[in-house]
Every structure is written in structure tokens, then in C-alpha cells.
Design goal:
Rossmann fold; 6-stranded mixed sheet; 4-stranded antiparallel sheet; 2 domains; Gamma-B Crystallin, domain 1
């Protein structure tokens, strides 16, 4: 599965990574549930409050609830960052190595976290993947973060790298108290989508509990190997598909084009997408360049549409010349 980032755009689309010329080869994925690592944000901002409660306190309780329902056959590890020192991008720690989950020990480790420092998202997820031996077996990282990368790294690029190098690597990401349209949201969404994972916004305690419960179930179901796809030549355009994993009927969007309404039958039909257009594609939920906006980066390959943009796809701007109407 290969997807990449989406975010709100302002006046023009920004250039991103270039789609590889050759298609990815399907690889044999070991059967079984694999191993997972929960990575918790313990940076200083986790002392921020939601409805009068510190975010770290809410996170502790939510992790406890997740551990109660964690599948018994699913190994789980625990990591945190930013909990030991201020201003230190290397402040990342493996609190519990992947093993059959010891809920009491993990809860104790989470309860002891005292938020202090930076937000090294990329280095933490990379370390988690390595701890899980992601290049040898199915591996899943579950990241909870309340902010953007603060250590001069690109979570989106990291996601693409880990997806390429991993046997079957997935990062599920929960954005805790993240502002819509923010850089933080774009980074976290991209990290998840680049690996075929889920991105979920959690605004409060109830939503964080629900989000962790949902991603806790996801690793328990073995993911089938990615479908082997042909090498597509999109030129400088984007290709939309009416089925997941780049299958089914197609609709091509040429680079540099604008369409204030999708063709008949396509507005609610887009299930996967691949894009090589210069500067990417800007989609809108409604015709006439209105409604929710979705920035599809150049080089994007989404085996399925992101969860929060899986509905209608009403209009679009494609390519560097695309400019939004005010």
C-alpha cells in the first residue's frame, strides 16, 4: 500500500516528491498478526489542557483502556519521547520491548511520564520500526502526538522510506488536539497515508479513547500483500480509480487542468488515486471549487482514499498553474 500526504492549500500548490518511474514489486508478507509499538508524545505541550485536564493525564487513561482490549496474540512495545529533558531531540526511549502485553507494567511506565521536551516524531517512528524489525516482518507503529515535528526532519518522507524498505510496515497516527489545516495535521496525515495506515483526529478524552481502541483492532487482522500493479505512465497527470488498490475503471486528470465539476458518476466514486502531476492535485468536496479541500502531493499513490476524504470529490485543480478562487 502506498499513499502520501494531504493538507489544506492556500493560494498555490506546493511541489513534493516525484513518483518513482518503476512500479513497486509485490513482496511476500509473513502471515500472522506481526508486532506493534505504541509511541507516545511526552513533549512539553502535553501539559496543555483540554476541558480542564492535562493532555498527558487523558493519554494515560486512554492507554489504560486500550491495553484492556489489546489482542492477546499481538505483541506490543512501548516508547515515548520528550519525557526526560528539554531541548533534546535524542530524548527517545524504549520503555517496553515488544512482547505479549503486560498491561500493568505498561500502565506504570505511562503513568511515570513527565512531559518536558521536544517532538522528534521522525526519529521516534524510525527507532520504533527498527525495534520491530520492520524489514523482516509485519510491523505496526501506533503514534499519538499533539504537535508537529520539531527536530528538523520530515515525517512524510520518513513514511515513504519505511513503506519502501519494510516487508509490511504500517503507521497508524492519532493527532491529539491538532488544529484542522495545520502543519502538524498535514505531517501526521502524511506519515500515516504514506504507509497505508490510518490517521485519526482526537479532540478530547472520549475521542482519544475511541481512536486508540480502533487502531488497537487494526493490527490484529493480517493485511494481505499489496496487489502487484503494472507500471503506469501518467505523464504529468493523475489517475483516479473506482476501486481500491488502483483497480477498476479509471479517470485521468491532465496536469494543469481545472474542472469545477467531476464527470457524471465520479463524484462519489473515487476509491484510490495515483498522481504524477507537477505540484500535485487540489481536490474539493463540492463542485465549483468549494467545500473541504484535499491536497494530493506530486508522486502520491493512495491505495485507498483517506478516511476523512472518502466521500464526494466534487471538483479539482491540477498542476503548478492551479490557483484557488477566494
Amino acid at each position: 500500500m502506498k499513499k502520501t500526504c494531504f493538507s489544506l492549500a492556500a493560494l498555490a500548490l506546493a511541489a513534493c516528491a516525484v513518483l518513482p518511474a518503476s512500479a513497486q514489486q509485490a513482496v511476500a508478507v509473513p502471515s500472522g498478526p506481526g508486532v506493534s509499538m505504541l509511541v507516545l508524545d511526552a513533549s512539553g505541550s502535553m501539559w496543555g489542557q483540554i476541558q480542564g485536564r492535562a493532555k498527558i493525564e487523558i493519554a494515560r487513561e486512554a492507554v489504560g483502556s486500550m491495553l484492556k482490549t489489546w489482542p492477546r496474540n499481538q505483541q506490543l512495545g512501548l516508547m515515548a519521547y520528550g519525557h526526560r529533558s528539554k531541548g533534546n531531540c535524542a530524548d527517545i526511549e524504549v520503555l517496553k520491548a515488544p512482547a505479549v502485553a503486560d498491561a500493568a507494567a505498561m500502565q506504570q511506565a505511562v503513568n511515570a511520564l513527565q512531559p518536558k521536551g521536544m517532538t522528534p516524531i521522525s526519529a521516534s517512528v524510525r527507532m520504533a520500526a527498527e525495534q520491530l524489525k520492520f524489514s523482516e516482518r509485519k510491523a505496526t507503529v501506533i503514534l499519538v502526538s499533539d504537535g508537529e515535528e520539531t527536530c528538523h526532519a520530515d515525517p512524510c518522507a520518513l513514511g515513504a522510506e519505511l513503506e519502501k524498505l519494510g516487508v509490511d510496515f504500517t503507521a497508524h497516527v492519532i493527532g491529539f488536539d491538532i488544529q484542522n489545516g495545520s502543519k502538524a495535521q498535514a505531517q501526521l496525515q502524511c506519515l500515516a497515508s504514506a504507509t497505508g495506515g490510518r490517521y485519526i483526529d482526537a479532540r478530547d478524552a472520549g475521542e482519544l479513547n475511541k481512536a486508540l481502541g480502533e487502531v488497537a483492532k487494526a493490527p490484529a487482522t493480517p493485511t494481505p500483500p499489496p496487489a502487484k500493479t503494472a507500471s503506469y505512465d501518467f505523464g504529468e497527470g493523475c489517475m483516479l480509480y473506482d476501486a481500491e488498490n488502483f483497480k477498476g475503471a479509471t479517470y485521468k486528470i491532465e496536469s494543469g487542468t481545472r474542472n469545477d465539476a467531476m464527470p457524471d458518476g465520479w463524484s462519489k466514486r473515487v476509491k484510490s488515486l495515483a498522481c504524477a502531476a507537477n505540484c500535485g492535485l487540489l481536490g474539493f468536496a463540492d463542485p465549483g471549487y468549494d467545500g473541504k479541500q484535499l491536497h494530493v502531493d506530486e508522486g502520491a499513490r493512495w491505495a485507498r482514499m483517506p478516511e476523512d476524504y472518502s466521500g464526494s470529490f466534487g471538483s479539482f485543480d491540477s498542476g503548478c498553474r492551479a490557483v484557488l478562487k477566494e
